[in-house]
Amino acid sequence: MTEHEIPAEPAGSGSILFPAVLLALVVSAWNLILAATGLYTSPLLGAIVLVIELAGLALILVRTARRGYDYRRQVLVGLGVFFVVGAGAFASGLISWTVLASDYLDVITPSYRSSLERAGGMGAAEIEQRVEEFREYSTPMRQSFVAFSGTLVRGLLFSLVLAMMIRSRSAPEVSLLRNEGES
Fold first, then answer.
1. Over the stretch 73-90, which tens digit does the pLDDT of each residue have?
2. Contact residues for 11 (Cβ-Cβ < 8 A; gap 6+)
3. Alpha carbon of residue 58 to chain centroid
4. Which of its termini does the chain have fewer beta carbons within 10 Å around, N or C?
């Protein structure tokens, strides 16, 4: 075995569902903690979820590489994992914005208004109109759907890149496009 080769793991050695659900629970718990403590306004603390997602997905994709999954199948697994994580983000978003941080919109509206004012080129009436449109659009259901769909897109992008990186570390033992045993 070379230095970069990923050791083989038997094909029937466990489901990917448990790690996916575990990752969804960790991400959802982090989101709920941010909402409950009022720290959801911190971009740095919000970005920690990206690190959690990347680390969890990397561990899962290494596991699938050990099982001999091809690149396409690894990307599909990653997308499936992030569908589960996205469902958790949707649910925790609804709880966050309706129960834990129901004043969310009141907290972020002033910063949105000041960003419009700093951008310039708009009168006071236009700024107020945009703020009102922002408030109408930003319902808990829409925010939660945005969290779900953003998680899916992130999952696809993360999966495409991580699967390629993991596979390149073990090349040529693991083919990029198909399983070793396939023709």
1. 999 999 999 999 999 999
2. 67, 68
3. 13
4. C
